[in-house]
Amino acid sequence: MNAPRIAYLDYLKIVSVFAVVALHATGSNVAVVSNSSSWFLANFYNLLTRFAIPCFLMCSGAVQLGKSFSSLSDVKHFYLKYIPRYIGYIVLCLAVYKYFDIKSVLNTGQEVNYLRGLLYDLYSAPINLFWYLFLLLVCIIVSPILSLIVKEKWCTYLFLFIWFMAGIVSGTIKQLLNINQSVTINFYVYNLLIANFFVGYYFLGYVLNNQTIKFKTRTLLYATFGSILILNIITSYAAQKSGTPQEGMYLGGNIFIMAYSICVFLLFKNIFFNFRLNTFIKLLSSRTVYIYIFHLAIPYFYTGGGDASRRAFIVSPVVFIICFAISLPLHPILVVVGRFIWKILSVNALISFIEKKFIMSANHKIIKP
User: Fold this and answer.
1) Nearest Cα to Cα of residue 253 among 146, 138, 175
2) Which of 40, 58, 128, 246 is the most buried (most CB within 10 A)?
3) For residue 116, is it left (φ>0), alpha (ψ between -120 and 50) or beta?
4) Percentage of residues in the chain with pLDDT exceeding 70?
5) pLDDT per residue over 54-90, tens digit each?
6) Is-contact 98 129, C-beta < 8 A?
7) Is 244 helix (H, G, I), strand (E, B) or coil?
8) Is the pTM here over 0.70, yes or no?
9) 10 Å Cβ neighbour count for 272?
10) How much is the average pLDDT of 316-336?
11) Do the beta carbons of residue 220 and residue 266 sit within 8 Å?
12) To 5 degrees, how large is the angle CA 290–CA 275–CA 259?
């Protein structure tokens, strides 16, 4: 039996994925630094969207870590339900963006490298576009372990403390001191490693969803605006000084991004907690991953130029609606594809083997006189 849906999480997921679309829509306006008012406005718009990935992860963790993992059969059921789905997402993303990559190369008259971006030159399209799907897959895989940690209060606090010090504080200090570390490892491995940091937000979502301390909405609004103000000052100063945006300051490893994201999460909890969910909101919430997958492909069909205001308030809603429409017929197809690939990989067979080999043999030893 499925647990009842939590209204504010569905609303936050929808707003978060729209923020992802707006983030990428305004990104090109921020990339070229100038001292004009249009750049500062674009930077402000872009910062407003930076709660998106942390909050989306917190929404997922709030739901998934509340599931029961009391037996191996529970873990098996959980994996069978979610891993094929995310494998399907990855295959879909590869197919879509590799198609457009090949099409763009053909238009230039150059030779097509069909495996580029898949097996080599991995920091080019299409695989570099969906690092977030790797992140979600890792979160799903480690959910049974995290669910054990979160049951013990001291383990929960220790986990959050280590994550905060090693990920957030360390990351913020590196950003402020402008310490950059070049990535020289395989893209697939790198995305699995970066998930170890972002999984902290996934864990934090469950903790915040279940904490009983009530913060006043006005206090949270002040904290939200304060975080945005500080972010605007430090990112603008750093960009103007160096001539280029300092990417690390815009990501979840920044302590002010973390504070901003937590405030947004708690604001939605305060405001939408007792809201009712209608069928459309449930459907839209269930299609947010598809909107994430397709939104970067829409510029191939819809050219959205102009200033940041036009991109944020006109281009982003149009892209959002188009992606949602595309997702409607695709979901049932993708579920079937994911299950088929899952069977090919024989992971299901491996789980069944472990269950029969170890669980049944252990039971046999217990029963045997």
Assistant:
1) 175
2) 58
3) beta
4) 75
5) 999 999 999 999 888 888 888 888 888 888 888 777 7
6) no
7) coil
8) yes
9) 18
10) 83
11) yes
12) 70
Q: Is the peptide bond before 126 cis (omega within 30 degrees of 0)?
A: yes
SS3 159: helix
Placement of tokens 């049944």 in the chain = 360
Write out the two tokens for 47: 């910062």
Instruction: Select from 294, 360, 361, 355 the least CA-distant residue to 324.
Output: 294
Q: What is the DSSP string of 97-148?
A: HHHHHHHHHHHHTPPP-TTBTTTBSTTSTTGGGGHHHHHHHHHHHHHHHHHH
Q: How many Å apart are CA 292 and CA 127, to the nearest integer?
A: 14
Nearest CA-CA partner of 258 in 172, 350, 153: 172
H/E segment holding residue 11: helix 7-31
CA distance 150 to 142: 12
User: What is the pLDDT at residue 225?
Assistant: 94
Beta bridge partners of 120: 116
Strands (E), 172-219: none
For residue 359, CA distances in Å to 69, 138, 201 come to: 15, 25, 33
Cα–Cα distance measured from residue 342 to residue 186, given in angstroms and rounded to the nearest whole number: 24
**Which residue do the tokens 């009712």 mark?**
276
Phi, psi for residue 150 in degrees, rounded to 5:
-70, -15
Q: How far apart are CA 67 and CA 225, in angstroms?
A: 34
